[in-house]
Amino acid sequence: MSVIRTRPVLRSALGALAAVVLLAGTTAACGLGAEIDRERNPERRPTPTPTPPSPSPPPMPAPTAGLELPPTPEAPSPTGCPASGVRLTSEPVQGAMGLRMMTLTLTNCGSKPYTLDGYPSLTVLDESEEPMTGVQAVQGTEAVTAGDSARPARLTLRTGESAISNLAWRMNSEWTPYLRVVPRPGDAPVTVHIPDRLDIGPENRLGMSAWHQYEDRSTS
Question: Is the pTM of this model over 0.70?
């Protein structure tokens, strides 16, 4: 009677079955990974390689003790004396019944005497600092208001002394904050800012008195 040995055959069958299962699992895993890749990158574009950041530039060296920097220009003092040696200012505008009056003051802030003889030369400027059309400056205030204005007289201002010219005009509809002044023939023109503004345009006359000595009566 012969005996049939079945254990080696069974082991071989089980080994073959395990190999098939392992291969199938590997194939399934590869298929799942490929499916995930297709969902993430359907066009199958190559994944870009990240570019390393560029190195930062080296810090600038601190200035050494021997390095000379250009000097910072000083702002001009608002109370400083102009190169002409005189300062022009305006007093507040006074008005009543359509008449306007204002005082123009010239002060000798330089170190030399300053001589005046006659009238200032005046030009009314518009907002763009251009001559205002139709406004005429005239010598004397009689053309604007009754009364006799100061007559020309030669005067010499010492340092700190002032002279004034009285201005008069009739109220109108156009305003301007600028007045160009030439104190005496040969002087450079100076643009004076009028805080109260002149309501003088567009057609009008600006009367002026001759320069005369300013007398400070507040101390008398």
Answer: no
